[in-house]
Amino acid sequence: MPFGMNSLSVFLRNHRVHLMFDTLSQLPADPILGLISQFSQDERSQKIDLGVGVYRNTQGHTPILSAVKQAEQMLLTSEHTKAYIGPVGDAVFNRSMAELVLGKQHTALERMTMVQTPGGCGALRVAAELIKRTHADATIWVSDPTWGNHIPLLGDAGVTIKTYPYYNFNDHRLCFEAMFSCLEKVKAGDLVLLHGCCHNPSGTDLNTEHWQALVSLALRKGFVPFIDMAYQGFGEGIDEDASGFRLMCEQLPEVLLAVSCSKNFGLYRERVGAVGVVSAKKAIVESHIASIVRGIYSMPPSHGAAIVAAILSSEILRPLWERELGEMRERIQQVRKELVSSMNTLGAEGQFDHIARQSGMFSFLGLTETAVAALAKDFGIYMVASGRVSLAGLNPSNINTFCGALNKVRLR
Ligand code: PMP
What we know:
This protein has 16 helices and 13 strands. It is α/β, with parallel strands linked by helices. The chain has 2 domains: 29-64 and 326-410, Aspartate Aminotransferase, domain 1 (Alpha-Beta Complex), CATH 3.90.1150.10; 84-312, Aspartate Aminotransferase, domain 2 (3-Layer(aba) Sandwich).
């Protein structure tokens, strides 16, 4: 007889059966996913979501870029097969992505292996598996704070994770001296994960002198930089945002890279990214990445990467994409300025100035957990408990409401 829930309970009462999932207990909801559900249950029409890290336009919508739509239309007629694409993905995509991150003239292009992955997350995980394969006792050093998913993505591969100081929550600035002296103690062969630009969650980036100092330190100590580039083009510009990474690839023998096309192409759900390795052993490294991929998900999904490849190799779509990316970048920069100027007008001079100095989608407001909870309860304004906001959630129709509420909570 087939089991329904009731007949199954009766059966289990009468038989001694070993159930494999009985040892598991319910896990708490992921903080961001939990926030989404709280937000959707809130019935207030003025509610504001500053939790989720996706770009939104002035209407609060996450649009499909026109360049993407047009590329999809082209693909609809030109695509002639849905046969497997193989573990390393699409060669045109891989080449175009290497040129996007390094620039077309970079000397490291010939030493760089680029392999298409399911999003930046897939790239991070494949890189972690590669690290484990080549250097099982290596530690990956991540910034404190870092993106919440870095530790599970890298740590679940079985690599040891440690943190280095990065952001000072009191003055809202990079604490480079503390970072540098911590990295002085890193052992040769360890990996140091750096955000290429638009640091998530702090919005605080390294400048050229910092990157250069880290290059010298990497050479002296023998650690390998591992760059996570999830927001190229969202900070200062496509080339500007990759400048630290390019500097490292010029002067160091080995660099790892995880890149995402989720934000700058707006392809979040298509899962497009790439793992990159700069090394003199390019072909050998690529063979290992292919074998790692084969053992996890066999091969990446094709559609999103085909869109990116079509855009980057088209003389018409590429400038269109660059323009659309520029609009997204400038809108966020504008929101940052408006927020600071409104808060200063409301009497909070100096308290939020860091937001205009920072870049990318995220910043910390510098609020206590109680203040964050009060914003949700009293005003329907949602953000993660650390007070990290995704600034793309603000627009001309809600920024004044937001600043008013923030000011009230700040004064309590
Ligand atoms: N790295 C960082 C720092 C991120 O913020 C994200 C996305 N939130 C990713 C990597 C990966 O993004 P995806 O897998 O969606 O491409």
